[in-house]
Amino acid sequence: MNADGRTRLNQTPEWTALAKHREELADTHLRELFAADPERGTGYTLRVGDLHIDYSKHLVTGETLRLLRELAAATDVFGLRDAMFRGERINVTEDRAVLHTALRAPRDAVIEVDGENVVPKVHAVLDKMSDFAQRVRSGAWTGHTGKRIRNVVNIGIGGSDLGPAMAYEVLRSFADRDLTVRFVSNVDGADLHEATRDLDPAETLFIIASKTFTTIETITNATSARTWLLHALGDDAAVARHFVALSTNAEKVTEFGIDPDNMFEFWDWVGGRYSYDSAIGLSLMIAIGPDRFREMLDGFRLMDEHFRTAPAETNVPLLLGLLGIWYGNFHDAQSHAVLPYSHYLSKFTAYLQQLDMESNGKSVARDGKQVDWGTGPVVWGTPGTNGQHAYYQLIHQGTKLIPADFIGFAEPVAELSPELTAQHDLLMANFFAQTQALAFGKTAEEVRAEGVPEELVPHKTFQGNRPTTTVLARELTPSVLGQLIALYEHKVFVQGAVWNIDSFDQWGVELGKVLAKRVEPALTEGAEVPGLDASTKALVATYRELRGR
Ligand code: F6P
């Protein structure tokens, strides 16, 4: 038993039953599962909102799914889910509520944190954002010299960058094409340099996005951006027209010199990686407009409601979370690929990396004890079909099992020319062909039947049995994006709940930050840093030598 009254996960009867079932299924091939059940292709599918989810190409039977759901019941996934939606402090190590779902709650909802309904505050900020976004888009908000704002540069990192940067890319075809919207995150000065080198400071708005407003990368870049602006405009008063802040920390925002009236607030119950539908989405809202932004929130809400109310048998985030556990914990899969067949989703997987890996990259359970079961996978992937010509070889014929999500759309975006629209079927033919090849492979007999010389037969044989989920929607809209992101948020939640880890803290990023602060004076001044290890000491010396110091 744990301190929190739970039996160690891998000692529960549900876990043991899954391990046994895995052994029983060891020699079963997807070819057999499909042959045994002609309805599998339609039966193993679910529909939520605009998303059609096909999970037939997974190494599971009805019994596997039943056993996985029993594991979810034994670990009280739905109990923790309800506690999250109620605003309980389920982020135990930071003693915080986890309420990103409140960011998309309807105006009349009541969600309380410490006895206060937070929904009116959420909508007050959304209204303030909408008003500001409209003024920038219409030209009513001008820069210090009276020029119209034509460039928006978001400065933030991690959750204060990846979400809006990804979503802007996804929804580019809905964006005002007369606005230049850029994202700066890296403390490498090259990032800010490239983002600003061709911009007119008089037409540029900087959005400084930082939940804490203490993140060194963001504050350093924001300070450099202010210097760049003031160098051109020569008047401190310009800051008020060219800088706004998105933060929970009004004090630090004011200290930086940004008018608190130009601050868009969010709250400590919104985790950084769960924040792009909060004030952190201001750059996106300016780009696509408040109405489209609200459509996106509707999409999030649709998936929230599904997760909150759908029974276990048809609950898609639960299903996807459990399938990940099936592979990670019972098939020893180390990673999970997300492979979107949409150019607009080029930053989607990078966004999911933070969502998943910062949430579930933990090795201590909520009771403070080391886990002795695997937790979050390495999440990776890039848009098809580029990946097909790079790393798919390993997915098809390598020695590692890599479960993958394929995400595609029936329609290309509306603004493509007829000629480019015609390319869409080819893109999607690849999409369908890949999951088919991964699942069913090609037997040695099939290869031989093509007249392939015997010595090449093993090389040209595809084992198959590589599991995939297919997510298909008609088109990529703001609402569909919201549905997809909320789906992954809740999938990650399910896995963290089963593994009994705190998916909402991120202590693992702290040590590097502290050490960077300690090492910096050694680089700049050659200062003696007490306790520096021999390797780092030698590297710092080489760095200084190379820089001629
Ligand atoms: O990488 C650690 C982290 O705390 C993330 O969780 C967060 O999204 C990011 O840094 C940025 O933090 P902030 O918004 O406070 O600048």
UniProtKB/TrEMBL annotation:
Pathway in which the depicted protein is active: Carbohydrate biosynthesis; gluconeogenesis; Carbohydrate degradation; glycolysis; D-glyceraldehyde 3-phosphate and glycerone phosphate from D-glucose: step 2/4
PROSITE patterns with a match to the protein in the record: P_GLUCOSE_ISOMERASE_2 (PS00174), P_GLUCOSE_ISOMERASE_3 (PS51463)
Catalytic activity: alpha-D-glucose 6-phosphate = beta-D-fructose 6-phosphate
Documented EC number(s): 5.3.1.9
Top enzyme category: isomerase
Molecular function via GO: carbohydrate derivative binding; glucose-6-phosphate isomerase activity; monosaccharide binding
Sorted UniProt keywords: Cytoplasm, Gluconeogenesis, Glycolysis, Isomerase
UniProt GO BP: gluconeogenesis; glucose 6-phosphate metabolic process; glycolytic process
KW Isomerase (keyword) present: yes
Catalytic residues as annotated in Swiss-Prot or TrEMBL: 358, 389, 513
Superkingdom of source: Bacteria
A single GO cellular-component term on record: cytosol
Pfam families named in the record: PGI
Protein location: Cytoplasm
Function description: Catalyzes the reversible isomerization of glucose-6-phosphate to fructose-6-phosphate.
NCBIfam families, per database record: PRK00179.1
Protein family according to the UniProt entry: Belongs to the GPI family.
Name under which the protein is recorded: Glucose-6-phosphate isomerase
Gene: pgi
